[in-house]
Amino acid sequence: MGASGPALTWDITDGFAVAVLDVKGQPVNVISRAVKDEFLACFEALANDASVRAVAFFSGKPDTFIAGADIEEFVKLGSAAEAERLSADGQEMLDRIARFPKPVAVGIHGACLGGGFEFALACHYRVATDHPKTQIGLPEIQLGILPGAGGCQRLPRLVGARAALDMILAGKTERAAKAFRLGMVDELVPPAILRDVTLAAAQRMTGGWRPKRKRPGGFTAWLLDGNPLGRRLVFRMARKQVLATTRGHYPAPLAALEVVEHGLRHGMAEGLKREARLFGQLAVTDVSRKLVQIFFATTQLKKDAGATGAPPPVPVKRLAIVGSGFMGSGIAGTAVAQAGVDVRLKDADLTRVAQGLHAARGILDDRLKRRRITRYEHARLVALLSGGDTFAGFGRAELVIEAVFEDLAVKQQVLREAEEAMSGAGVFASNTSTIPITSIAEAARGPERVIGMHFFSPVAKMPLLEVIPGARTAPGVVSTAVAFGRRMGKTVIVVKDSPGFWVNRILAPYAGEVGHLLAEGASVEEVDDLAVRFGFPVGPVTLLDEVGLDVADKVAHVMVAAYGERLQSTGGVAALVKAGRLGRKSGRGFYLYKAGKKRGVDGSVYALLGVHPNGGPRPAEILQRLVLGMLNEAARAVGEGVVRAPRDGDIGAIFGFGFPPFRGGPLRHADDLGAARLAADLERLAERHGPRFAPCDVLQDLARRNAKFYP
Ligand code: 3HC
Question: Which candidate in 25, 85, 103, 710 could, as Cys together with 54 as Cys, close a disulfide (CB 3.0–4.6 Å)?
C-alpha cells in the first residue's frame, strides 16, 4: 500500500500528546515500512519534547484501528533473511514504545489485528470500545506466518501461556468483551467516551499510577501458567493438538509454539530473536504464499458485484422463505443472525412452520450461548422471525428464497404461487443444488427476477454461497443476491447455470471414484484416511455420509444424465440407500453413528456392496485417482466458463468442501503439478481404468502451450 502524506500526526495540549494514525487514501491502517519510520520519528519527537508528559494514541479511521503489518509488503520479500530483518525492525520499534520514558495509552476502536495488536501490546495501557467492529487478535497463523513483532512474547506474559496459545495457534480474533475478560485490554468503554477515558488513563500514569493486572483463572491459572512444570504440560498438550489438527501440513502453529516456549524459558530477548528467525523462514514458504493468495482472493470477492456493469444491489430489509425444513430454517436463522433482516417463513402447515422457526431460533440461541450476541440482541433478533402457512407478508419482501423439495415441478409451482404474492420488483431465488435455474424460471412471469442461491448445509456454518444467474436474469438481480449473500456472512461466487454448478460438479468424480475403489478391494478407512492425509477435512466416504446418501445418489444421477459415462459410479450408494442407510442423519451409512457421534465403519456394508476389502490399489494410486479426477473435471468446467475466473474456482473449492487451503485450491494445485505432468498421469490412469480419466481439452491445451490457469 503506498501512502500519500503523513499518516501519523499529533497535537500537544496541556502536556498530553494525542497521536492519530490515518494512512491516507487507504481503507484501513496498515503498518508499512514508511509508516514504521513515521512511528519512530513521532516517538522520538515526543521523547525529546520536554512539554510532553504522556501520549494517547488513536486511529483516524472510522472502523479500523490497525489491520496489522502490510501484507503486500512482506509477500514481496525474496528471502528468509529479508523477512527476518523486517520482523526484527518491527520488534525494535515496538521495544522503543514499550520502553518509552513517558506513559503511552492506546484507545482501540475497530479491527486491531496482527501488528496492530502487537503495537497495542507494547503500549502501557489499552482501552477498547465495546463496539461489534472492535475485533482484537493475532490472525498471522491464518497467513502461514507467526506474530513477528513481539506478539509471541508480550501476549503470553500478559494473559498467560494457555490463553495466548489459544489465540496465537488458531489465529483467533476476539470481540472486545472477550478480549477484556482475557486481560488483553485493560478497560472496555462505549465509543463515545473512548478518547476521554484513554486520556484520563494517560494522565493517571503520569502520576506514577500503573494498572494492577490480575490474571483471570485463579488456582488453575497459577498451576498451569504460573510455574515451569505446569507450563511444560500446557506446551505438551498444545503440541499434540496442533499436530492433530494440522497433520504436518501447516508449519506456522508449531513454529509459534516453539517461539512462545523459547521466550518464556530463556527470556524476552532470546524469544524475540527466535521469533524473528522463524517469522523469516515462514514468510517465504509456499504454504504462506498460498494462504496470502486466499486472503487477497476473498478480499477481492468482497467487492465483486457479481456481474459486469450491474446496477447497485437493492437493500434487502425483508426476506421471505418458502420451505421451513433444514435448509429453509438454516437460511432464516442465519439471515436474522448475520443480516438482522425481518424474516417470514412459509410452509404448507403450521406444525412445520413452528418446527422451522424453532430451528432458526436455535441458531440465535447458539450465538447467545457462545456469547457472540448479548441477551438484548438475542431478544431483538428472535422478534424478527415470523412465519405462517400462507404467502402473507411476501408482498413487502425484497427477496424470496425457496428451499423446498428438490424437484423441478414443485419448485416451479412454488415460484408461480410466490409471484402472485410478491411485488413486481421482488427477487425470487431458488436454493437448489442441481436443477437448472433457467428451467425453473420458465414458469415465471418475470424470469429476469429469478436467480439461484445455492447454500451449503448446515447453512449457519458453511461459508460458501453459489449464486447462479439464469439465462434471462437481470444484472441488478445478480448484484442483489450477491450482496445479500455477503450480508449473510458468506463468501459468494457467481457460477454458470449448468448441472452441479461448480462445487457439486468437481466433487462428482471424487465421490464417484469411491465405488470403483471399494469394488477393487480398497477399504473405506483407507480411502478416507488417504484423502485426509492429503489435507481434506474429511475423506470422500465420510463426506457422502454427511451429505446424505440419498441426496448424493440423486445428485449423481443428475450428473450422469448431464455429463455421461465419465461420472458414472458403480451404484454402491444406491444399494445402501435401498437398504435404508442414508448416512449420518439415519444413524447408518458407510459408517455407524451413535448419539450423533461417528463410530467405526459398518462391516456389513461390504456385503451389501458385494465387495471385499483385500488391499485394493496402492495408496499412491488411490490418492491420484481421487484428486486427479477432480482436477480434470475442474479444468473442464473452467473451459466451459462455469466459474468466471480461476480465483472463484479455488475459493469455491476451499470454502465449499475444504479443498486443502495450503494447496491453494484445485486450479492452483493443477498449476503446481504442471499441466503436462497432470495430463500424462491422467493418460496413464485412463489406460488402466477407463476413459473417465482421459485428460480434458483444457489440460491438454495448457500442456501443449506450457501454460497455467494463473498468469
Ligand atoms: N495488509 C495489507 N492490506 C490489507 C491488510 C493488511 N494487513 N488488511 C486489509 N488490507 C486491505 C485489503 O486487501 C483491502 O484492500 P483493497 O481495498 O485494495 O482491496 C482493504 O485493506 C480493505 O480490506 P477488507 O475489504 O478486508 O475490509 P473489511 O472492512 O472487510 O475488513 C479487516 C477489514 C478485518 C482489517 C480485514 O481486512 C483483515 O482481516 N485484514 C487482515 C488482518 C491480518 O491478517 N493482519 C495480520 C497481518 S500480518 C502481521 O501483522 C505480521 C506481524 O505480526 C509482523
Answer: 103
pLDDT category at 5 given cuts 50, 70, 90 is low
| Confidence label for 94 from pLDDT (cuts 50, 70 and 90) | very high
Rounded distance, CA 567 to CA 605, Å?
22
Ligand 1 atom at minimal distance to the Cα of residue 143: 44
| Residues belonging to the active site | 466
Q: Which pairing describes strands 427-430 and 399-402: parallel, antiparallel, or unpaired?
A: parallel
Pocket probe mutation, ligand 1, options 29, 168, 282, 299, max atoms within 8 Å of Cβ: 299
* Residues 537-572 pLDDT 10s: 999 999 999 989 998 998 888 898 899 878 877 667
What spacing in Å lies between the alpha carbon of 178 and ligand 1's midpoint?
22
For residue 86, which atom of ligand 1 is closest to its CA? 54
Confidence (pLDDT) at 216:
65
pLDDT band at 1 (very low <50, low <70, confident <90, very high): very low
What CA–CA distance (Å, rounded) separates 196 from 56? 10
Place of cell 408482498: 395
Provide residues with CB under 6 Å of ligand 1: 1, 27-28, 30, 64, 67-72, 87, 90, 111, 113-115, 118, 139-140, 143, 147-149, 151, 299, 302
**What is the separation of C-alpha 398 from the centre of its chain, rounded to a whole number of angstroms?**
28
Strand ranges in 156-315 using DSSP code E only, listed in sequence order: 173-175, 187-189
Q: HSE-up of 102 (CA within 13 Å, CB side)?
A: 20
Q: How far apart are CA 156 and CA 260, in angstroms?
A: 7
CA of 508 to the centre of ligand 1 (A): 35
Which residue CA neighbors atom 54 of ligand 1 most closely? 148
**Residue whose CB lies within 8 A of the most ligand 1 atoms, among 23, 26, 28, for a mutation test:** 28
Say how many Å lie between the CA of residue 369 and the centre of ligand 1. 29
**How far is the C-alpha of 52 from the C-alpha of 315, rounded, in Å?**
49
**Positive or negative: CA dihedral 35, 41, 47, 49:** negative
Residue 4 burial (10 A CB sphere; 0-12, 13-18, 19+): exposed
- Alpha carbon nearest to ligand 1 atom 47, residue: 68
Q: What spacing in Å lies between the alpha carbon of 41 and ligand 1's midpoint?
A: 25
Residue 517: exposure state from Cβ atoms within 10 A (0-12, 13-18, ≥19): buried
Lowest mean pLDDT across 38-42, 467-471, 569-573: 569-573
One-letter amino acid of 595: A
Whether pLDDT at 89 is above 90: yes
Q: How far is the CA of 26 from the centre of ligand 1 (A)?
A: 11
Burial class (CB in 10 A: 0-12, 13-18, 19+), 579: middle
Strand 104-108 versus strand 187-189 pairing type: unpaired
Strand, helix or coil for residue 432: coil
**648 C-alpha to center of ligand 1: Å?**
19
List, as one string, the DSSP characters of 534-596.
Answer: HT-SS-HHHHHHHH-HHHHHHHHHHHHHHHGGGG---SHHHHHHHTT--BGGGTBSSEEEETT
Atom of ligand 1 nearest to the CA of 87: 54
> How does pLDDT run across 256-289, given as a tens digit for each residue?
999 999 999 999 999 999 999 999 999 999 999 9
Q: Which atom of ligand 1 is nearest to the CA of 72?
A: 2
Q: What is the mean pLDDT of residues 431-451?
A: 95
